[in-house]
């Protein structure tokens, strides 16, 4: 009889627990947030919150790492796109600066053209023939535009025209210009300080020289203002010189004064940067085919 009472006691205990559970659930349902189970749930959530935070702190970096690996190809593409955009913007900025420089050059030439009578002929440098034997450029204006052999070619602005050279050959649509640094080029010049005159001659890669300056001419290169050389106006047998006066040829770069020489040796730094020359203006003069000096 003892062995048969145990299962009956167990069944009674189970029935009692189920009844109590149903009673608690019913009571909790009726009480809502104020019920006993809700209160127990809040206590359990309070106890579990620190543990959940610790687990989240440990596992989140791992999850972020694997998420980053999954998005790595997309991030690389975005990075490459950003680099390309930065490069494009830098190119645009540089291009805008170059356009502004060209605009200023063209505005200067336009102002210079308006001061000429008759008007000058604008042209673009389309080629160069620099070699050991000649120093020339080719421009985009020819006889159809009024260009003729012997006409002077300048750059710069109306307030500061700078000598480039002279036209030596012409086609209907283009012309070759002998640069002032060519070894066969010569032009009369005057010093801006002493007003002494001399003959400027090209020497290729070396700075042009200026001959014929009296030996006792004092040329100070350490002054506030640079010593510049300009073209000279003169008339021979009723014929004016090829180059109008006041065109800047260059700046004196060196002076060698010797007591044994009858002249002062002077070299000039040309006023034009021939390596960066893009636009020029041809003076429409009646001079042609004559000598090579001014």
Characterize this entry briefly.
The chain is of the alpha+beta class and 294 residues long.
Structure explained in plain terms:
The protein is of the alpha+beta class. The chain has a domain at 114-282: Beta Barrel (Thrombin, subunit H), CATH 2.40.10.340. It has 2 helices and 14 strands. The chain has helices spanning 2-31, 36-115, and strands at 121-128, 136-139, 152-156, 161-170, 175-179, 186-191, 197-203, 206-211, 228-231, 235-236, 239-240, 248-256, 265-270, 279-282. The strands form 3 sheets. It has a 6-stranded antiparallel barrel. Strands 6-7-8-13-12-9 form a 6-stranded antiparallel β-barrel. A two-stranded antiparallel sheet has the order 10-11. The longest helix is centred in the first third of the chain and has 80 residues, at 36-115. The protein starts with a helix and ends in a 12-residue tail after the last strand. The model is unreliable at 288-292 (pLDDT under 50).
């Amino acid at each position: 009889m003892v062995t048969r009472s145990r299962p009956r006691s167990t069944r009674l205990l189970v029935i009692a627990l189920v009844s109590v559970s149903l009673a608690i659930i019913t009571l909790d349902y009726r009480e809502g947030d104020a019920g006993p189970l809700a209160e127990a749930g809040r206590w359990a959530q309070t106890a579990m919150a620190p543990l959940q935070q610790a687990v989240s702190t440990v596992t989140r970096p791992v999850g972020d790492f694997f998420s980053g690996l999954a998005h790595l190809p997309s991030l690389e593409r975005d990075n490459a796109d950003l680099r390309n955009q930065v490069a494009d913007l830098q190119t645009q900025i540089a291009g805008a600066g170059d356009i502004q420089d060209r605009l200023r050059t063209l505005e200067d030439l336009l102002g210079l053209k308006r001061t000429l009578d008759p008007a000058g002929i604008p042209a673009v440098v389309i080629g160069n023939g620099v070699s050991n034997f000649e120093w020339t450029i080719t421009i985009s204006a020819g006889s159809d535009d009024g260009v003729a052999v012997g006409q002077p070619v300048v750059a710069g602005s109306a307030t500061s025209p700078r000598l480039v050279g002279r036209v030596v050959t012409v086609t209907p649509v283009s012309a070759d210009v002998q640069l002032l640094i060519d070894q066969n080029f010569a032009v009369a010049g005057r010093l801006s300080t002493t007003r002494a005159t001399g003959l400027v001659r090209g020497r290729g890669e070396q700075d042009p020289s200026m001959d014929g300056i009296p030996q006792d001419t004092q040329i100070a290169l350490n002054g506030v203002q640079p010593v510049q050389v300009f073209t000279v106006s003169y008339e021979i047998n009723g014929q004016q010189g090829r180059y109008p006066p006041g065109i800047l040829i260059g700046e004196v770069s060196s002076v060698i004064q010797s007591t044994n020489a009858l002249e002062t040796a002077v070299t000039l730094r040309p006023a034009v940067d021939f390596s960066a020359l893009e636009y020029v203006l041809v003076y429409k003069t009646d001079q042609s085919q004559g000598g090579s000096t001014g």
